[in-house]
Amino acid sequence: MGKNWDWSLKKGKEQRIKLEVDARMHGLPFNPNNIPLHSHCGTMQSHFNKGWRSVSAIDIELRVNGNRDYQHARQQLHKRFGGQHG
Fold first, then answer.
1. Helix, strand, or coil here: 31?
2. Does pLDDT of 85 surpass 60?
3. How far is residue 21's CA from residue 37's CA, in Å, rounded to a whole number?
4. d(CA 16, CA 12)
5. Which residues touch 37 (CB under 8 Å, ≥6 apart)?
6. Do 64 and 21 form a contact (C-beta atoms < 8 A)?
7. Does any domain span residue 56?
8. What angle do CA 8, 13, 27 make, to 5 degrees?
9. ∠ CA 33-39-43, rounded to 5°
10. Is residue 86 domain-resident?
11. Count of domains forming the chain
C-alpha cells in the first residue's frame, strides 16, 4: 500500500474517533454511516472509508471514559486546592 493510502486510512480512523467522542461528550447524535468527504480521488476516499469503518465501540468507550476520568480528576483538584490545575 502506498504512503498516501496509509495516511488516508489513518486519517479516517482518527477523524471518526475525534468526531464520535466529541459528540458523545456533548450529548449529540452521531451517525457513523455519514462518512465525510476526504478526497475526490476514489482510491484515497476508499482507504479513508476503511479507516473510518475500522473504529470499534471499544475504541470510542476507552476514549470517552478516559476523558470523563480526566474531567473528574480536574474537578476533584479544583475542590481540594481551588484555582486552576492542569
1. coil
2. no
3. 19
4. 6
5. 45
6. yes
7. yes
8. 140
9. 85
10. no
11. 1
Does 11 map to a domain? yes
| Alpha carbon 71 to chain centroid, angstroms | 17
List pLDDT tens digits, range 61-82: 888 888 777 777 777 778 878 7
Q: Say which amino acid occupies 49.
A: N
Amino acid identity, position 44: M
- What cell does 45 get? 476516499
Q: Cell numbers at residue 7, please?
A: 495516511
Task: Yes or no: say if 20 and 62 are a contact pair by the CB < 8 Å rule.
Answer: no
Summarised one tens digit per residue, pLDDT across range 20-65 is 999 999 999 999 999 999 999 999 999 999 999 999 988 888 888 8
Distance of CA 14 to CAs 7, 9, 50, 77, 80, Å?
A: 10, 9, 12, 30, 35
Domain of residue 43 covers: 3-29+36-81
Q: What is the dihedral of CA 21, 26, 30, 32, to 10 degrees?
A: -10
